[in-house]
Specification:
heterodimer; A: about 110 residues; mainly beta; seven-stranded mixed sheet; about 0% helix; globular; B: mainly beta; six-stranded mixed sheet; five-stranded antiparallel sheet; 11 strands
Chain lengths: ~110, ~110
């Protein structure tokens, strides 16, 4: 009964490829997020959805496109992957905006 | 712009002692502040939330203080154990998002 789950756990791919990461939460939360944690361990918000509506879009390249098919799912698609995209990507959810965050286990993306 | 600073990147504390981690922020007055724990290879896990009108919050061996005048929060672990070794992240709310500090890696030495 995992609260926030992500797949895959690891993703190794070549530069220029397109890849997707999936996230699901079974907490009944209204808000979901994508965070990026770089090699220096700095955790930075990328996107936030509230009831399937995009509410936060930080200065992220438009190669990154989030999609929320329903309140329980938030997927992240990345086009034309670059070396600098290598990081750990965390999905999170919260009951309300900027509330306590519940994080998934993370997806380690390595771009070669 | 909003800045959050956690006192040190790494902190070594002898087992049984109290570990104290510091979080300072500038340019904003958050309604509340949160502390998270992150273990290697895992996502952050929420520990405690303290509101601007609260001076102190406790949970078992954990204690958090919030000084809105100093713009500082202190996170204490009393009777520290090696299992407390992890990275601790301070976070504050701003508008519709949570902004995280870079974290402090805490090592409890047996």
């Amino acid at each position: 009964d995992t609260a926030v789950s992500q797949t895959p756990k690891y993703l190794v791919t070549q530069m220029g490829n397109d890849k997707s990461i999936k996230c699901e939460q079974n907490l009944g939360h209204d808000t979901m997020y994508w965070y990026k944690q770089d090699s220096k361990k700095f955790l930075k918000i990328m996107f936030s959805y509230n009831n399937k509506e995009l509410i936060i879009n930080e200065t992220v390249p438009n190669r990154f496109s989030p999609k929320s098919p329903d309140k329980a799912h938030l997927n992240l698609h990345i086009n034309s992957l670059e070396l600098g995209d290598s990081a750990v990507y965390f999905c999170a959810s919260s009951q309300d905006r900027s509330d306590t965050q519940y994080f998934g286990p993370g997806t380690r993306l390595t771009v070669l | 712009s909003q800045k959050i600073e956690q006192n040190s990147e790494a902190l070594n504390i002898q087992e049984g002692k109290t570990a104290t981690l510091t979080c300072n922020y500038t340019n904003y007055s958050p309604a509340y502040l949160q502390w998270y724990r992150q273990d290697p290879g895992r996502g952050p896990v929420f520990l405690l939330l303290i509101r601007e009108n609260e001076k102190e919050k406790r949970k078992e061996r954990l204690k958090v203080t919030f000084d809105t005048t100093l713009k500082q929060s202190l996170f204490h672990i009393t009777a520290s154990q090696p299992a407390d070794s992890a990275t601790y992240l301070c976070a504050l709310n701003r508008d519709d998002k949570i902004i995280f500090g870079k974290g402090t890696r805490l090592h409890i030495l047996p």
